[in-house]
Design brief:
Belongs to the universal stress protein A family. With about 290 residues, this protein is α/β, with parallel strands linked by helices. Helix content is about 40%, strand content about 25%.
């Protein structure tokens, strides 16, 4: 059974991501955890600078918690909506409303529930369309050791027939690490487009070895190797994505790969790359590795 965490702030953006997850895994037996994290403004300073372990929320002190009550009601509404519009006997849903910070709670649940995927909606910061993801998504990418699937605002589900997997072949690939990608590929008989971007240099001995390992790991999957020379990684991804009608972008969040350079720049101008398809980010070391 797949265990999938769905953080929500009850926006249409987060609902859209939930719908994507329900459709992507419609033929899989899944346990979905619908999560809303809240920190009432009046308590944020004391909570964030105090000890979360010693402070479970305003009700601990007998203070009414209307935000918590609203959170519970809205979670119930979302769950009812899911059961009405996407009823699936293979799916079960548990709601979680908690007074905490988003990253702390996701970390705890990933460990406690053995989560396989975190699926969340994402959109650029207001007034800055060049920003790939909202700050919450970026923090999850950087902090959570779990596979994260980010769904762009307003993206409607498409069967992931063509998957783009950019890599520099600098890391040793393992079956457990690539299992999330292999699982999705097997569900939809997808083709993996492995894209390497270089500046004209031949692959090193280590890179060649890692490339051959990929061939073994993908032996039961349709795949193609592609090589692009003298283009930046963002340009190559963007052009290939459009040319090949890619439905899903997949990367491994290796600390020393081009991923950090691509997504964690400090200024908007350094990003200059727009993503309008779902993005699956696999940690270099998974919880099961």
């Amino acid at each position: 059974m797949k265990k999938i965490l769905l953080p929500t702030d009850f926006s249409e953006n987060s609902w859209n991501a939930i719908v994507y997850a329900l459709q992507l895994f419609k033929n899989e037996k899944c346990k979905f955890y619908l999560l809303n994290v809240y920190t009432p403004v009046i308590y944020q300073t004391e909570y964030l600078y105090g000890s979360p372990a010693l402070f479970s929320g305003p009700t601990e002190f007998g203070v009414p918690d209307p935000i918590g009550e609203t959170s519970l009601q809205l979670l119930k509404d979302f769950k009812d909506r899911i059961n009405k519009e996407f009823k699936n006997t293979k799916h079960s849903i548990e709601t979680i409303s908690v007074f905490n910070t988003l990253i702390s709670e996701i970390k705890e649940l990933v460990e406690e529930k053995a989560i396989d995927y975190v699926v969340m909606g994402t959109k650029g910061a207001t007034g800055a369309k060049e920003v790939l993801f909202g700050s919450n998504t970026v923090h999850v990418f950087k902090s959570i050791k779990c596979t994260v699937l980010a769904i762009p605002q307003n993206f409607k589900f498409e069967t992931p027939h063509e998957i783009l997997f950019p890599t520099d072949y600098e890391i040793e690939f393992t079956e457990k690490q690539l299992q999330p990608l292999i699982d999705i590929t097997s569900l939809y008989i997808s083709r993996i487009n492995i894209l390497n971007v270089s500046y004209g240099y031949e692959l090193s001995e280590t890179q060649e070895k890692n490339k051959k390992e990929l061939e073994k790991l993908f032996e039961n999957t349709a795949y193609l190797f592609h090589s692009v020379v003298n283009e930046s990684v963002p340009e190559a991804i963007s052009e290939f994505q459009l040319r090949a009608r890619i439905n899903l972008l997949v990367m491994i969040n290796n600390k020393h790969s081009f991923f950090e350079n691509l997504f964690f720049k400090n200024t908007v101008n350094q990003i200059g790359f727009h993503l309008n398809i779902p993005f699956l980010l696999i940690p270099a070391k998974t919880k099961k590795s």
